[in-house]
Every structure is written in structure tokens, then in C-alpha cells.
Amino acid sequence: MSLGVPGVSGDVPGVSVDVPGFPGVSGDVPRCPRGLWVVPGGPGGLWVVPGVSVDVPGGPSRCPPPPVQQPPELTEQPPEQLVVFPSDDVTLKCAATGEPPVEFRWTREDRPFSGDLPGVSVSPGGGTLVINASVAGQLQGRFRCAATNALGTALSRESRVIAESETQKIPLKHPKITPKTPQKYPKNPPQNIPLGTAAVPPKIYWLNSQIVHIAQDARVSMGQDGFLYFANAQVGDTSPDYICHAHYLGPRTIIQKEPLDLRVAPSNSVQSRRPRLVVPRDPHPTHVALRGETLVLECIAEGLPTPWISWRRLNGPLPPGRAVLDNFNKTLRLRAVTEADDGEYECTAENGQGSARRSHGVTVEAAPYWVRRPRSAVFGPGETARLDCEVGGKPRPRISWSLNGIPLDELPDSGRRSLRDGALVLSRLEPNDSLVAQCEATNSHGRLLANAFVYVVELPVQILTPDGERYAAVENQTVILHCRTFGAPAPAVEWLTPTLEPALQDDRAFGFTNGSLRLGPVLRGDSGVFTCRAHNAHSNGSVSARLRVHAATRIAVPPQSVTAKKGESVTFSCGATFDPGLEPRGLLWLRDGTPVTESPDSDKFSVAGDSLTVAAVDYGDQGRFRCRAWTPLDAAEAEAELRVVGRPGPVRDLQLQELGERRIQLSWTPGEEHNSPVEKFVVEQEEGIFSPGRFQEVLTVPGSQPKARLVLSPYGSYRFRVLAVNGYGRGEPSAASAAISTDPAAPERYPMGVKGEGNETNNLVITWQPLSPGDWNAPQLRYRVQWRPLEPEGGPWAEATVESPPFVVRDTPTFSPFKIRVQALNDAGKGPEPPEVVGYSGEDLPLVYPENVGVEVLNSSSVLITWTLEGSTSRLRGHLRGYRVLYWRDGWVGERSRRHALPPATPEPPPQPGVLTVPGQASEALLGGLQPWSRYRLSVRVFNGRGAGPPSAEIHFHTPEGVPGPPEELRVERLGDTALGLEWRRGFGGILGGFLGGFGRLKGFQKFLGKSLVGSQRGFGVISAHFRTKSCWGKKKRGFCGGFGGILGFFWGGFGGLPAPHDPSPFAAEEPWRSSGRANSSLGRYRLGDLRPGTSYRVQFVGRNHSGERVAFWESEVQTNGTMLPRPAGGFATEGWFIGFVSAAVLLLLLLLILCFIKRSKGGKYSVKDKEDTQVDSEARPMKDETFGEYRDGEEKASGSSGRSLGAAGAALGSDDSLAGYGGSADVQFNEDGSFIGQYSGTRGTAAGSSGPASPSAAAPLD
Fold first, then answer.
1. 773: phi > 0 → left, psi -120 to 50 → alpha, else beta; which?
2. 485, 461 in Cβ contact below 8 A?
3. Model pTM?
4. Which of 133, 413, 836, 1024 is the most buried if burial means most Cβ atoms within 10 Å?
5. 906-926, pLDDT tens digit by residue?
6. Nearest to residue 842, comparing CAs of 816, 807, 818, 880?
7. Per mean pLDDT, which range of 106-110, 607-611, 905-909, 1082-1086 is the poorest?
8. Residue 843: exposed, middle, or buried by beta-carbon count in 10 A (0-12, 13-18, 19+)?
9. Ig-like domain spans which residues (predicted)?
């Protein structure tokens, strides 16, 4: 255990001490005799146990050697300075150890001081000096204690005693403050209040008679000298009780001075002024700061508006972490001053009127401080002792040595003492050379003293380190093997490796003076037993040490740094490897040096294996996360940083500084950036009178500028807040600043958007955009409206004052120009003069109309219309807004109504014209979208804001022929088992030249109403039609021109009806295409004959393109009614003669049916209609032979009768009994692709009932 001997530390192995008066720790072992014992211990030191009995295991045979003496060593010293008050005693403590027992003596002012004086005493058995309070004031000064025995003398530090006298009440000279303007600082600053002198200055407070502190801010504050400073005086500062209180901490006394009466008179001649520094008064102040202490620099300024103080260091940045601004930036404190803080520090006072600067020169000095202090030691005879004493300080300290309290230069030279580089060297020590040496350093800032003894004694070698000590280390570590020895002279120590070779031969080994061996970095092969040998002139000894080297712990997979957004979860992983022989071991996570632990109350941190998860990271979670893999011998660490990014935090400390009339500076302290630099600051403003509670953005400043200058509007109460913006968005706004108000003033803006226009023919309505309440500059706002006619120039202004728009001027001439201006005014005055605008009274309908209207036909669908507008512009009676062209279509060119047409039962309403509006000043317009080959008429009207004027004279014109449109409403009618009728309504595009139709036969599989119909005994035909005009043929073009007609598929009757749905028979073989002739363009229908029943046909309309090639431009499928007889599977039915016979019979039957059809279709009741149709088609002539190469003389002659009979059939299609002799009729409806979308039947129908849809895509369902 440690015996607590000053200057020596460590434990005495195998020894316990029983100190009288304290619980013993000895056991039932023999006790050595009571006395003084020297127990080896510590590097070169002794365990000296005076007056203590020692229990030693093993009995008296292991008792320590006979006791020896000990030099004096101080354990307690008096303070460097002691301030006492009249009621306090002076107590200076001094204690020391030593053998023989030490004696104490005191000196005062370097002279012996006796403890036998009245009121003075020294504690019995010790050295504590006590001076009674009654004589303390007479005995203040410098005191020092000395402790002496036969081996030397130790000195204490010097202690200065200061006795404070009773604080005197010094008469107070009232500073007379001449009343000035509310914002003007007195010509001379207030004088301070004398408070007496004291070793410890009192703390100063300014209070009023109600014991309430005087409120201090940037304008009113107290300086370091206790003065209360006003940057500018205000009427509100008037008070009769400004009271200064001085608080003395030592005697716990507060002294109150008489109240000061301050009166500030109001004034109307307040003027702003630039800052002036009143503290420091010296234009070039200098300061001396002591190392380790706190330096205080101060600048206080007066001015109007209140100046703002800022600091900077001229020769470098302010020391980070140690520079603090206090007292509204008026005080700069530098804590723990170092030599590097030398330099110039400048303060700047600014307001809107200018600035003032003052530079403080700072010099850093230091009281003496230890660099290396002397150490006590035990030496053997013949050795050399070296006592080092190295001291720093500024100015450079003076070092002096003393031996046993006597200065070295006052001792006789022994020839064995010398000073080397400030160290005291004692050579060839002898047994009687034991002493206590003092090293003292002094400069202008203080003293430093150290005692160190030199003890000369002869002792045999003892190894204090137990034999067989075990040491464990990991590779690449450094291990220290101990071999603590004791003896005088000091034993020499030698270490041997496990191979019994000198350990110091290895470059990795180093031997300490205390005998320990340092080896490193160690390798796995260094494991084994090392031997320590120690010897001196009297004896020798040895011990062994066992070393085992393990594999080092390593981080195989270190954690990776992460940057995460607020609210995300982050996982760190850490993989480690350990030596298998090391237990215990584990993995520990630390955050900024603090262990991370899971909590049952929170899932913020969770550890699973070698992973750490941080859930829902917040800004407070960021930091450095360290993974530590540990064993009893070593630890490996890897670190990763968690950075949480997000929107910046709110700014703080908003401060308003007035720069002038309605001009302020807003400053703030930026908040947290949250790892993303602030890009800008947004200043928001609340106007509390007109829009309370609503903050609006008014200014944006760069992120490096934490201040903004603002100009305020009159008559407002303003508060401000600031928010920061970074790459992740806008942060939360700061707390609102204090409110600041401005006085009313005349408006600074005039209304915008002034207009004048009438809404009646005899008035003028004046409108404008009202000023927003923020531009009123007063509680109320009015508008001064002025107007006068534009002609004559210079007429008087008429005016009216209103509170809001609009303002109506009545009884004005129609559409007359006026000059108008609108000015804002309030109780404080008129706003700026507004510009004049021209407005017009109400409009009326125009009296003029366009003339010289002309039409130029451009093509079949477009014409160019021109006109002029003549006459006086006054007849417009308004602003010309544009022209309207009204046009009507009267019909086709050459169109005549039918002779038998009946007059309508009720008269039809007149057709609505088309309207083309041409805005602005125009004289022509392009009218498009007209129909070819049509008759039109048009007129033109001018219009203003009131309406349109009279129309111009009508102009008639017609458009030329164009490409014809497709036939409309294509229909099909079943006329019999072998005949179909087609009907369509013709389209117009000029003089029609005819129609072309075609059909074909189709085989294959068809789907009908969702059911599969398969068979070869039915036909499915498709018909199509198109038409063309003479204009195409007249140019002898062989290509196709004209529109496409509808597409229609149909069935007609046959012999055997439709096959059963399950009949798998295929359709008959496909036949070649054949022509049915040309279609008459004047008819909207076409009929096909000679078709076989139960057969599918494909019908086409065919034309020619521009290259002369035939083009099928419409195609569909149709199937005739009836059933084809199935062919027998065998027998005579498959013989040729039978097939020929049946074919002849069928052909004969078809011929008979055709003859009957022709005969019936030529009945007398249809002749009138045929003739009428021929007359209607007088303008439509058959196509010329050269148009289609396929339809030449032979074909046309062969199909002439067929065409005429089909035309007759078309006429019959419109009668009630036209289908009486046939098996029935059906309307068949198709989709656009030719597929059926309805059903067919043999039901008889009328012409109206058999009419098909207008087009295949808009077909009606079949019956």
C-alpha cells in the first residue's frame, strides 16, 4: 500500500502499515519494532515511515534495516496573497515532514518574525502563524515560512498580507447633466462616483429607488469603470433616482450612493450625428495582458441613431472559442490569453451618419512558470546529483539558487558545486552532503519557488519487482518489462532475452534509468522468459519476466461515412478479427466518444451483430460514430461520420438599428446550416396597421450577409422576421423582431391604370387602380379627379374628390376626347403630380359603311374581299374595332327546283349568314371554306365598341367547279333472286359526268352476327360507286378524279337457301371480275343483275388514278338469297352430262326470270318518271370512251340495255309495288369494312322502308 510520503509514490510489496489513530490493516503476523524505517520503493526514492510500526510477513527476519533520517519537505504553504478585513484574523499555514522533527520559523519583510509578539501565535507542533484581527492592520506585509532539521532547510513561497480598512463614505459630487434633446448625448460624459480603493474592486450595479435594475441595451449601458453611459438621451430617460450600488464581496457589504436626478427636455430640433467614441478616452490605448488570464477591451460610443459596435483583429482572426463579445458588443473578452494573442484589436462604431474607429494595442506578458522544476532524489556516495530548474516568463525571469535557505553566492565554494545552463550540479557526493536546495524565479509579475532535497546514503541492492511477473501484448505493440531496484549507490541493471543474449543489442529495446525495459514493436517470436540482473558495489540480484505476444485485433470492414436527409434511417457495419486466445472480447459503438446503447424506451439506436442502425436521423444525431473492437490487451477502431442535411435552422437575435428617417438596418445571427451552406436570407415584413399577422417577402440578401437595410413607408407599424435558404429549401422563420412605427406623410405614388371611356352615349366613366393601403401613408386616402376636353387646348380643369373609383362625368358629347388625371391625397398632403391620359366619352353606332366592295375568286373554296371606308371619321362615332363580312350561300350553280315539287306547308326561316370578323384597320379579307360550284352573296359592315353600322351593298358571286364529293346514302335493294338495286344521293362539285360501279364474287369463310356461316352454295357480293365531273374529263385526264361513295354488302335469293350452320362445305371457286357498266351521275343508286342465288359477291367501284391505272377505291361483300344445291357425294350427280343438264335448266330459268323482270320494269306507270329523270340529268352526260380504257364500244353496247333496264328498276324501287313479283326485299347494313351489322329477310317493304342509311358508318339496324 502507499505510505503517503511526499515526493515518493508507489506501493510497498508485502508490507502493511499500522498508523496510530487509524484502523489498522495488519494481520496476525509478527510486527517489527516501532521506530523509523527506511523501506525501498520508487525510482531512487525511500519509503520513510517515522513513528510507525510495520507488519512484515515472515517475522522479524524480514524487518527493514535500521531507521535513517529524512530531510524536511513542505506539505502546506501560505497563499501568495491574503486580503483580510478589520474583523478577520490572519492565518498563514505552514506544515512539513522530516526526521529529526522539523522546526519552523517565520520572516516578515525578509527579517525574522517572532511568534511571541502580542496578538501573534504559532500552532503547537506545527508552523501555522495566527495574527489577531486587532493587530492585523499593523502587521501586513510579506511573510515566509522555513522548516528545518539536521538534514537541511525548506522554504515556503512568499505570502503578501493585505488588511482592508473600513470603507469610507467619500462625498459625492453630483454630475450635473444639462437637459438636452431627447436623442443628444451630453457634451461631457457623466462623472463616475468615487467608491474608495480596495484590494478587491467592488461590483457596481445601477438601480432605481424600487431596487429595480436600470434597463440596459445598445443605447444605455455600464462600462468597466462603473459609469452609466447614454449613447443619446431621450425624454423617457428622465428619472430622479439613478442610484449606484457598490458590492464588496469580501466583507459582504453593499454601499449605496445618493440618487442622481436626470432630466431630459424635449426638443423639435433633433439632428442625427455620426458616432464618437467616449471609451477609451486615450486615442491610442495599450494593454498588458498576463498569460493565462482574461483580457478585457472596451469601446463605448455616442451618436444618433444609436451606434453599433463591431470588433476585428488587425494582424489576424480573433481567437476562435476564446473571444467573447459582451455588453451589446461593447466589450471584447479574451479568455486564457497566450503569447500568440499579441497584436492590434480595432473596434468600429457605425450608424447611418458615419463611423468611428479605435485601435487597442495588446502586449502579452507572463509571470514565471515552470518548464522543468527540480526533483528530490537519493544518491550514494561518489555519485553526481543534477537539479534542473527551467522557468518561462515575460519579461525573462531571473533565477537564483539557495542551499538550506542561504543564497548560493553567500556560501563558500566547495569546488564540487557548479551551475550549468541553469541547473545545479553537485559532484562526488559524500555521506554528509545531504541538503535541501531552493530554485526561485522572479520577474515584474511574480515569483516562483521550488524545494528539492539531495539525500546521500549507502544501501545494498534490492529488486522490488516480484519474480516471475507475466506480461501479455499483441504484435506491433510496445511492452515495458519492469525491474524496479533500490540501493545506494544506484544499482546497474541488465536485461537478457529468452536466448540469454543482452536485450539492448536489439534496436527495438530501450533501458530506462529505473531499470525497466521497453521493447517494441513486439513480434509473435518475442514470446518467452526475459531475465533482469541488478548489482552495485555491495550486492546483486535477478528476477524473471514471462512475455506472451498475441495477434493484433483488426477492423476488417470499417464503417462508411454517410450523408443522410433528416428522417431517413442509416446503418453502419463494422467487421473485426480477434486473436482466438484473447477473452473477453467484443464490439462497442461510440458516438462522439460516448458509448451508444440501446434503450427499451426508444428505438433510435439498435445494434444487431456488427451493425448499428440509427432510425429517423435528426440534426442532433449527426457526429462521428466509432466502431471499437476490444480485447483485454488492445483495441482497434474505425470511424465514420454521419452528416444530416436539411433545411437551415431559424436565425436568431434579430436587432433593429435606425439609420435615419424611415431607414433601418436589420441584423441577425445565422442559425444552423445543417451541413448545407446558406445561399440567401429572405426578409419578411409585417405591416401591423393594414395587414396584421401577414408577413410578406420584401428583400433577399446573400447568405454571407447577415444584415439588410430597409426603407419603411410612412404611417406603418412594422415587424420583421428572417428565414434562411439552402439547397434543401427554406428554413423556419425567426421570431419576429420588435415593432417599429413611422409617422404619416403625403402619398408617394399616384394611381396607375387611369382610363376614361363611356358606357352610355353621353357620359365619361373614369377608372383607375386604387392604391394599396400600404401606399396610403395615412389612415385615410382620397383621390382628386380632374378632366377637361382635349380641344380647345388649355381649357380649365374640372375636378372632384372621391374616395374610390369609378367617377362618372355626365352630359358629355358623344365620343369626345378628354384629358384626365387622378392624384392621391391624404391629410398630410398631396401625392406626386400624375401624368395626363386621354379618354373618350360614350360611343354610338357607326353611321358609315364600307364602299367599293369587291370580290376576287381565288379557287373553288376561297375568295378575296376588298373594300374602302370613306367619309369623316367622326361618323364612326367610336373607336374602329374592325369589319364584319356577312355572306349567304344561295345554292348550286344552275340548280333548278323540280316542276312537281310541292310548296312547303310552312315557310322556312331565312338562312343565317356566315360571319367573318376582321379586327382593326383592314381593307381586305380572305374568305375560305366555301363550297365549289355554288352561288353566294355578301355585304360588309364596320363596327365600333357600341356595335355595327349599316351594311354595304350586296355583292353576288359564284365559285368554280371543284373535285366532286363522294356519293351519299348508298342503299341496296334486293329485286329478286338474281337482281339487286343500288341507290345513292349524288354529291356536288360541279357538272357531274357520271358514276362508276363494280361488283365481284367472293369465296371463303364469313362471320355473320357472331355465328359462323360456312358453305359454297351462297354468294356474297360487294358493290361500290364513285362519280366524276366534266371538269376532269374535259381536260382529257386518264387518271381518276371525284369522290368515293358509300360501301354496301348484300344478299339475294337463290335456289336452295342458306346452308346449315354446321355445313362444312367450302364456297365455290372464285370467278373473274366483270364490269356492270358505268353509273349515271344523276342517280343516287345502281342495280346489279344476273347474280346467282346463295352466292357471295364482292362489289367494287373502280376508277383510274393520275397514272392511268385502274384503282378499286371502294369495295365490299354481299351474298344473294337462296341455296345452291349441294353436289352428291357420288353416282350420276357427279357425271358431266348431269351437271350440264342442270346448268342448262338453271340458265333457262334465270333467262326467264330476267325477261319477266325486264317486262315488268317497263310498265307504263314508270315511263313518266323515267322521262323526268332523264330531263333532270340533262346536264349529266355519259362518260367518254377515252376516260376508261376497259369500257369501250363493245362493252358499252352490250351493257346499254342492261343499264337502261337497271335505270328503270331504279325508278321502280321508289314505287309501292315495284317488288311485288319477287320473293321480297331486304335492306342490308354493313360496317365500314364491309362486314354485316344487321340481319336480312324476305319481308316485303316499300321504297321508303327499304332506304338504307346515309353512309355505311352511320347505318340503321335492319328489319
1. alpha
2. yes
3. 0.44
4. 1024
5. 677 888 999 999 999 999 999
6. 816
7. 1082-1086
8. buried
9. 72-163, 275-363, 368-455, 460-548, 553-643
How many H helices and E strands in the chain? Answer: 5, 91
Q: How far apart are CA 47 and CA 17, in angstroms?
A: 11
Task: Please list, in sequence order, all residues whose beta carbon lies within 8 angstroms of the beta carbon of residue 1212, skipping any fewer than 6 positions away.
Answer: 1161, 1166, 1218, 1219
Residues 29, 31, 32, 36, CA torsion sign: positive
- The amino acid at 634: D
Full DSSP string of 865-901:
EEEE--S-GGGG-S---EEEEEEEEEEETT----TTP
Amino acid occupying residue 310: S
Which are the contacts of 201, defined by CB distance < 8 A and separation ≥ 6?
none
Residues 6+ positions from 902 with CB-CB distance below 8 Å: none
> Contact 341/334 with Cβ under 8 angstroms?
yes
How far apart are alpha carbons 858 and 383 in whole angstroms? 133
Q: Name residue, grid cell 523501506.
A: 39
Round to whole Å and give the CA distance between 34 and 52.
6
C-alpha cell at position 833? 403630380
For the stretch 1109-1114, contacts whose Cβ atoms lie closer than 8 Å and that sit 24 or more positions apart, written own/partner, are 1110/1188, 1110/1190, 1111/1040, 1112/998, 1112/1024, 1113/1024, 1113/1026, 1113/1040, 1113/1044, 1114/1024, 1114/1025, 1114/1026, 1114/1044, 1114/1045, 1114/1046, 1114/1047
DSSP state of 251: T
CA distances from 337 to 224, 287, 340, 366, 1220 (A): 19, 12, 8, 10, 129
CB 994, CB 1182: distance < 8 Å: yes
Decide: helix, strand or coil at residue 1230: strand
What φ, ψ does residue 136 adopt, rounded to 5°?
Answer: -65, -40
Percent helix, strand, coil in the chain, to 5, is: 10, 40, 50
pLDDT (tens digit, 9 = 90+) per residue, 612-660? 999 999 988 989 999 999 999 999 999 999 999 999 999 999 999 988 8
| Per-residue pLDDT reduced to its tens digit, 325-375 | 999 999 999 999 999 999 999 999 999 899 999 999 999 999 999 999 999
Which helix H or strand E contains 1174, and what residues bound it? helix 1167-1176
Question: Rounded to whole angstroms, how far apart are CA atoms 835 and 1249?
Answer: 78
Cα–Cα distance measured from residue 435 to residue 386, given in angstroms and rounded to the nearest whole number: 13
Q: How many CA atoms within 13 Å lie on the side-chain side of 1028?
A: 25
Q: Look at the alpha carbons of 544, 545, 546, 547 in this order and tell me if their dihedral is positive or negative.
A: negative
Give every CB contact of residue 874 below 8 A, 6+ residues apart in sequence: 815
Contacts of 18 (CB under 8 A, 6+ apart): 24, 25, 26, 31, 52, 53, 54, 55
H-run or E-run covering 606: strand 605-608
Cell triple for 1217:
309495288
Among candidate residues 281, 277, 283, 402, the one with its CA nearest the CA of residue 351: 277
The radius of gyration of the chain's CA atoms, rounded to the nearest angstrom, is: 62
Strands 35-40, 46-55: pairing is antiparallel
User: Which residues on neighbouring strands pair with residue 917, listed in sequence order?
Assistant: 884
Signed CA dihedral, 1023, 1029, 1030, 1036: sign only: negative
Helices assigned H by DSSP within 601-716: none
Strands 934-943 and 955-958: antiparallel
CB 378 within 8 A of CB 389: no
